[in-house]
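Please predict the structure of the following assembly.
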Amino acid sequence: MSHIHVPDGIIALWLWILGYILVGIYFLVVYFRFKQSENHKKLAIVGVVAALMLLTMSIPVPFIIPYHVNLSSLAGILLGPLYAGLAIFSVNLILALVGHGGITVVGLNSIILLIEAAIAYLIYRNLLKLKSFSNLFLPEYGQPKGNIIKSKEFSAAFIATFVALLVSTVLTIGVVYAGTRDLHNIMHAHCCHAHSDSVDDELHHVIYEHDEDFDDHDDFDEHDAEDFDIKRFLTLILIAGAFGWTMESLATAFIVNYINKVKPELLSDGGK
Amino acid sequence: MKITDIDYYAQFGESRLNRMPAGIKLLAVMFVIVTVVLSSNLAILAALYAALLIVIAVSSVPKFKIIKMSLFPLIFLVLFLVSIRNISLATALIFSLKALSASTAFALLVFTTSYIKIFSALSGVLPDFIVNILFMTYRSVFILAKTFENLMDMLHFRGLPSAHKPLALLETIGNLVGFFVIKSMQTGENMYEAMKLRGYSGSFAYLKGNNGKNCRN
Amino acid sequence: MEKIVEINCLEHIYPDKTRIELCGIAITIRKGEKVAVLGPSGSGKTTMLKHITGLLSPSSGVIKVFGADPAREYNKIRGKIGVVLQNVEEQLIGPTVIEDVMFSPLNYGYSPQKAREMAENILNELGISHLKDKIIHYLSGGEKRKVALAGALVMSPELLVLDEPFSGLDMKSQHTYVRLIDDYSRQKGISVILSTHDIELTVDFADTIYLISSQNKLFLKGSPKELFCQPKELEKFNLEPPAILDLFVRLKEKNVNTEIPTTVDEAVDLLLAKLNVQ
């Protein structure tokens, strides 16, 4: 799950407010669409899917790195992107209340995960409609037996989830980058850069008065200044991400495979 | 920590915080968030966090559980702090205090305030249908929790494939979750049928929670 | 007396091709009548109740509830029918008891004040007003069933439909629950139809019992006494007669001249008379 677990007070004010504005627009769209379609049953199912997402997050996958199952992409496949977003928002809000991610980033999180759910839904559906894709799984095309590729639904779910996660991770990184551009205001408040307007001079002297490294500001080397290293952040995220995307895509694929065997109409009804 | 367990403390806790009106607690949390968002002053943030810890210390709330829950944001924060070149102690402390103050405030809130009151308060800022989905989500968590517990018990009794067989492990978990999804969707359909039988026709005329007036204190 | 429910040769085919046929007997429920439907699992009891409540539409056959086709015209009759489903958890939606019971009145357009008044009245009548402000998921199984019953009765329906209302309850709670339903239905003159496996509970309660076994296409109808005095017929439905009836039927087979009681009190009186004990 490309969930922005950024605590409160880090992402810039304008950005997380924008996140909430976008969520507000999304609510309006859902409201009007719901009024048109009168699909009351879907709305009732949304609460259950949200509960499902919350509960399955506590299934521990015993691995080298602790990992938890997330169902944003599956929610997209089951509910369709419009209603999946409602479940995602509920989950994010409840998670924020219990300390998993800041309350200020609920809007941004919801939008990113809504995009993830939408991409998963669209890729899944369209792959299954593609004859060339379905043909890969016909016996005459030599579908290997006994390996992990169970069915076209399995493969479609894997690809859909992987791509969705890739995109949402990129978005997450973009959001974190955009939202932390102003962090120098915080960081340099306690740095030795004497020309920064954000420096609290009195505090600066209190902290650094006796620090020989910073006695002479003229000798200050800007390369020693604190700076949010987006490349380092990106590297860390991508390393963790590659593992996470694969795990989650496989998990979702196995889940979809099971549902397809037992109650396939749940997968084909999504979005209706 | 399970949501159901947190809810139990919120409902049946005997501390003064439990008895305090939800509105005051929510205002206090808002104050903390505003301070966390707007302030970059180490002293202010330290004082804020200290105040929250003092509240935990003097209240008869489940202290260890609250503090444990409040530390969760540090996991991501570490990732974030590692990405800052030449980070100073002061900067690290500021970010940490921001994260911890916010998470501690929320932990105190959810452990001492029933979800009904929290969602009812949110009905002032969120559309009705979202608040109703929140209520239904919460109710569904409790309905599904039993099924979920049974699944976890089954894992305990029957075991999972070893972590050395990652694909088998994932397939087993996938099947379990798939089963759980199907049961849950069936529950959702049953809930919808029950709602229809009770007159539901699309508009959530109720579930405003009456600002939690009906709840225990 | 006015017919509330009429079912004639109902057939339903589920998406997985499971076929339920209720064609052996015409099922009717009259005003004020209490009907129990007994049968083994898979016999079609729940299917029948789902047709009465409009949740399912028959593949063939006729079903009328208050003169309307429930699958197509449930909106017309919804206010007259109260339903308690087998799994009450899925039926209790509100966060607190009072809010859950207010669900129907509010959906029907009553003002919040009026809805609250209606909810409080029914909770009082059922003797559970002390649960009013409790959170639903912390109630016991028996309390949840009573709350579900309150939710079904708040709109003063003319027909109460209960699907396996006693499952999951201990013996004492079962008896309390059946007495609650019985007393209320007598007071208000409402018709009741319930499905159950539990023969013992239906003896006192039901005016009419239908035994159904869709797979074997077996159907029987009668009063408790009429049906339960035929142990050989009951065997075909995988049922055993209530213990008290069974005892007296066997005594009768042994040429003991006695009536067949349906309640323990009746049985005590008969035995005392037989033993010439005052």
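Residues 127-212 of chain B form one domain. The beta strands of chain B are 84-85.
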